[in-house]
Amino acid sequence: MVPERLPLWLQRYVDKVSDLSLFGGLPANHVLVNQYLPGEGIMPHEDGPLYYPTVSTISLGSHTVLDLYEPRQPKDDDPTEQPRAPPRPTTSLLLEPRSLLVLRDTAYTRLLHGIAAAAVDPLDTASLPLNAAACPSAVPGARLVRGVRVSLTIRRVPRVLRAGLLLSK
């Protein structure tokens, strides 16, 4: 990765997250900005070993529901098997507008995370997100309509190219 100066508005977020000492006392040095429209999601995935084993995400605009999954096992990949329904999440978290999510330890290194493609998140008593007690909008029976959401994923990349690049013809 090659370092670039961040716009001032974004640097403020990075500085505030860095002040939380989430990355072993080192400052965050990587930001990914994504926009999600209502009905869009992201497949379950892991961020991988390139990043320090902690990731922080600030949600701006709309809420969303982040699902956490157990990783697939080799025994799950039977080529003779018919296609099956997608796996069910192990747990879910409601990410409210202006919230900060920090994934670390097992949640970062072992579990997959993703967001279902949905325009509405219905909340019933049996499927309230794990953090529902801390979220004012997580009321049983609520139907949370998604709007446009911007996520700022702020993390630490241990290896960054420090020297300038030399380009030749």
Structure explained in plain terms:
It is a single chain. With 169 residues, this protein is mainly beta. Helix content is 9%, strand content 31%. The strands form 3 sheets. It has a 4-stranded antiparallel sheet with strand order 1-10-3-6. The longest helix is centred in the N-terminal third of the chain and has 11 residues.
Average pLDDT figure: 87
Largest sheet: 4 strands, antiparallel
Helix content: under 10%
Query: Number of helical runs?
Result: 2
Radius of gyration (Å): 18 Å
Strand order of the largest sheet: 1-10-3-6
Determine the strand fraction and express it as a percent band: 25-35%
Structural class: mainly beta
Order of SSEs, N→C? HEEEEEEHEEEE
Low-confidence runs: none
Q: Would you count the extended β strands for me? A: 10
Give the N-terminus to C-terminus distance in angstroms: 22 Å
Shape: globular
Question: What is this structure's SSE topology?
Answer:
Layout: H1 8-18, E1 30-36, E2 42-45, E3 54-61, E4 64-69, E5 91-95, E6 100-104, H2 105-109, E7 112-115, E8 120-122, E9 143-145, E10 149-155
Antiparallel strand pairs: 1-10, 2-7, 3-6, 3-10, 4-5, 4-7, 8-9
